Amino acid sequence: MTVTLDAAANAAANAAVNAPASAPANAPVIAAAAAPAASAEPTLVIDGAVKRYPNGAVAVRGVTIEVGQGELVVFVGPSGCGKSTLLRMVAGLEDITEGEIRIAGRRVNEVEPAERDIAMVFQNYALYPHMTVRQNLAYGLKNRGTDKAEIARKVAEAAAMLQIEDFLDRKPSQLSGGQRQRVAMGRCIVRDPSLFLFDEPLSNLDARLRTQMRLEIRKLQRRLKVSAIYVTHDQVEAMTLADRIVVLNGGQVEQVGAPSEVYARPASTFVAAFIGAPAMNLIPAELAGGALRIGAEAVPFAAPPAGMAPGFVTLGLRPEKARVVPQAERAGGLPFTLDAVEELGASRLLHGRAAGADVVTAADAALPIPQGPLALHADPADLHFFDAVTGTRL
Ligand SMILES: Nc1ncnc2c1ncn2[C@@H]1O[C@H](COP(=O)(O)OP(=O)(O)O)[C@@H](O)[C@H]1O
Ligand SMILES: [Mg+2]
């Protein structure tokens, strides 16, 4: 189950962040006037952040992350790992138990949400139902005392960018889910914030629209060059959107890196199992005397990674790096029993067992399904090794 705010709480949060009741005394009305500084100062620094809720629950356990200028960082992890809490701490919707949050070099721990120069898109959009799209877009600016001509110009610009010009006079109830999502984004764009925050913004959309909107968000963020944090439990969304991924687990950072790095070199079995679909195969094994023992099989292991001590390990192998071939065709490998075949169109998954472990492999669907006694093969360079106890990459 995804932990989400109820609609009323979400609306209140939206009002605090995106549509403050009045302009903060010392904030510039149009943030766009302040061009991004030439320095490499990160837009956001989260420094040793801890969140302990009043009931004693610790949702965030010492997180340190930077978001560079124009960078899109995705927080990804299973439900309950602290993604929303961390995002809400950045937004100012939750106070910070320990640590510091800095936006453009300024400590904001004590700064009101409306004064943080951020804009946030929520899962349920949090649009005002009684207002038209145009009014929804204009509301935050109007409250800040922006002049009419400027509001009209910004609303028109955002509407064109999001292709919602034809719906400006409709109410949210007369829009599809995807159109509402665009309006919610438009409301953020008109404010020219220095940081966009997205909390699972596509979760309410069907699969097809989610894929389309994901791409649109990416293009828009690139075009606006605005820094952004995007929270999702969906690893595909994380991989496709992010400049950098932050994998969270139990309120802590498991790994930070570019999607390709996190995929190629997961820092732990947790990350290995979470990033990539189907998940990486994780197989108990023992490294002894230059051989890798898997179940009852001793597989001669040509090139043990330098410095790896003998002992128990968890072996990782991506399904797409594993090959199942008839034993008659190629010697060696692990005997493999094929249990089920899953057709995915361009590829197919072969589910089976090797040396007592469940193993899934992915193969080109154009190739014939291998028959007869089978064996599992992998290039030694494609094997990942993790500590059998801690799960840490070796
Ligand atoms: N207001 C709250 N009071 C107490 N615990 C909370 C509160 N909000 C969230 N939590 C707990 O904090 C943890 C992280 O929650 P959350 O940040 O919503 O996770 P995520 O967004 O990753 O699903 C969960 O264990 C959740 O139950
Ligand atoms: Mg959440």
Automatic annotation (TrEMBL):
Cell inner membrane keyword on record: yes
Top-level taxon: Bacteria
Residue span(s) of domain ABC transporter: 44-275
Residues in coiled coil: none
Gene Ontology terms, MF aspect: ABC-type transporter activity; ATP binding; ATP hydrolysis activity
UniProt keyword list: ATP-binding, Cell inner membrane, Cell membrane, Membrane, Nucleotide-binding, Sugar transport, Translocase, Transport
Keyword Lipid metabolism in annotation: no
Pfam families: ABC_tran (PF00005), OB_MalK (PF17912)
BP GO annotations: carbohydrate transport; glycerol-3-phosphate transmembrane transport; glycerophosphodiester transmembrane transport
A single GO cellular-component term on record: ATP-binding cassette (ABC) transporter complex, substrate-binding subunit-containing
InterPro entries: AAA+_ATPase (IPR003593), ABC_transporter-like_ATP-bd (IPR003439), ABC_transporter-like_CS (IPR017871), ABC_transpr_MalK-like (IPR015855), ABC_transpr_MalK/UgpC-like (IPR047641), Mo/tungstate-bd_C_term_dom (IPR008995), NA-bd_OB-fold (IPR012340), OB_MalK-like (IPR040582)
SUPFAM superfamilies: MOP-like, P-loop containing nucleoside triphosphate hydrolases
Family as reported in the entry's similarity comment: Belongs to the ABC transporter superfamily.
Protein name: Carbohydrate ABC transporter ATP-binding protein, CUT1 family
Species for this entry: Albimonas donghaensis
